[in-house]
Amino acid sequence: MQIDESVKLDGDMSFQGGPTVEEEIIAAPHQTSFDEVYVRSVNSVLIGMDFRKTEFIPVLTEPNITFQFNDDSQDAGKKKKKKKSQYLKNTFQFANQNQCTVLPSGDIGYITLIEKLARYNLEKDFKMPAVKSADLSLYYYVNEHFNFSETDHVLIFYMGKEYSRMLFCQNNALIHISPMLNIGKTNSGTYDVFASKILLEMENGEIPKIDNIILCGEDTSEEFVFTLRSFFPESRISGLDFPVIDLTAIPDPDLIDNLSAYSIPISVAYEHHKEVYGNYSAGINLLSKEILERQKAFPVAWHGYIVILLIFMAGYYLSGNFFDNTRKLNKLSSELAEAKALERKNKDLLAQISDFQGRIRGFDETQVMLDTLAVGAGQWNRLFNETSVFVTGNKNLWLTALKTSEDKMAFQLEGYSLNKDVLTAFTESFKSAELKTVTTDKIQNKNVYKFTLIVQAF
Fold first, then answer.
1. Are 125 and 118 in contact (CB under 8 A)?
2. Element of type H or E holding 226
3. What residue segments make up the domains of the chain, in order of their start?
C-alpha cells in the first residue's frame, strides 16, 4: 500500500520535524470516505500550524500514478490531435527525447481528506497549489545537488518501509524508471535482493553500467552500502545531504540523523520553492484545473475576467485623468502664487526708484542755488547739466551725495546703480573723471552697486 504524502513549505525552507508521513497518514490511496475518528487522528499532526501560512501538497507515486511514454519517432509524419489535459502540467521529457505523460488514478481520496481536515479546523479550504510526483521531485533534487559527468550513469535508490524505487539517469536526464518494488526496510530479509533487482532493471533499461549510486530513504546503513559495493565495485556510492534544511529548527537529534527518511517530502518542498521563488518551470503539477478553480476566492468564467478587466481599465483611465488634472491645477496655483509674490516685490522696488527719481529731478533747482553761492559756478553748472542729462536717460542710476574736494578742484559724486556697465558709461560721459570705488549693496533684497566718482572741475 503506497502513501499519499503532504509536506509543509515555509518561506525560508525550514523543515517541520515530526512523525513520518507513513506513520501518520495511513489511509489507503483509494479510500474516498473518512470517519470523524480518522480525521481527528490525522489532524493531530497539524496541531500548532498557522493554516493561513501553510500550503498542502499531495505527493503521489505508483500505483496512484502511471507513466505513459509516447515515442515521437513512431508518429513521424502523422498529424495527431492533442487532447487538452485537465491537469496544470503532466508531461516531461526523457533523455531520449520521448515525451512521458503522468496520469493520476481516478480517485481523489487525498483531496477528500484535505477538504475534511479543512472543515474540521473551521476553514473553507486549505491552500493546495500543486500535486506532485514523488519520483520526479526526488530526481530533480538529486540533479540539483550533484554534478555528474555527461557520460556517467546514475542510480537514485529510494528505500521506504515496505517499498523501494529506482531511478536511472544520464546527462542530467531520466533514462529509466523501474516499476515499484514491493520490498523495503521492514520486509526485505536480505540486501542481496536489492542488488539483484538493480541488475534486473539495468537489463530491462539497457543500461550498461552504473557509475554513481545515490542512496536515500529509510535505510542507508553501512551494511547496505557494503552489499552494493560487492556487486558494483566500480560505482561511487553516496548518501543524500540536505543543505537546504535549517537543522537548528529541528530539536530532535535522532530526527536529524534519520533525515534521509524524509527525502521525498524535502525534495517536493524544494522543487515547489524553486517554482515559486526561482526560475524552475519544468516540474509537473498534477492538480486538476477544476480543483484549482474551486480554491479561488471568486471563481468566475472567462467572460467574468473580461468584465473585471474592463472595469479595471475604466477605473484606471478615470483615475489617471483625475490625478492628471489635479497635478495641472496644483501647478497653476503654484505659478499664480509665485507671480503674486513677484508683483509685491516689484511694487516695493518701483516705489524706491520713484523716490530716487524725484530727488534727481531736484538737482536743477540745487544747481541754480549753488551757481550763485560758490566759486566756479560755471563748473557747477556744467557738472549738473552733464549729470542731469545722463541720469535722466538712465533710470537704473541715481545719486545720493554731491561734494567738493578740499582744494575745490574736483567734485565727488556718490550714488547707486542697478547695472555695473552703466557706471562705466557714466564715468566716460565726463571729460576728466575717475571711478574711485564700487561696492555691492542690497536694497529690498536686490543687488545694487554703490559708487564714488571723482570729476575734475578745472
1. yes
2. helix 222-231
3. 5-299, 362-456
Name the CA dihedral angle for 36, 38, 40, 42, rounded to a multiple of 10 degrees: -150
3-state secondary structure of 207: coil
CA distance readout (Å), 151 to 154, 199, 212, 407: 10, 19, 11, 114
Quick: pLDDT tens for 155-214: 999 999 888 999 999 988 889 989 998 888 888 778 899 999 999 999 998 999 999 999
Over residues 21-70, the pLDDT tens digits come to: 344 443 444 444 567 788 888 888 778 888 878 888 888 888 888 888 77
What are the CA-CA distances from residue 77 to residues 4, 74, 80, 82, 95 (Å)? 41, 9, 9, 15, 22
Q: Do 5-299 and 362-456 fold alike per CATH?
A: no
pTM over 0.85: no
Q: Where are the beta strands (DSSP E) in 98-187?
A: 99-104, 132-133, 153-159, 164-170, 173-177
Amino acid residing at 302: W
Q: What is the CATH number of domain 362-456?
A: 3.30.1360
Asked whether the bond before 63 is cis by omega within 30 degrees of 0, the reply is yes
Architecture of domain 5-299: 2-Layer Sandwich (3.30)
**CA dist 223 → 171, 190, 213 (Å):** 29, 10, 15
One-letter amino acid identity for 49?
Answer: M
d(CA 151, CA 309): 52
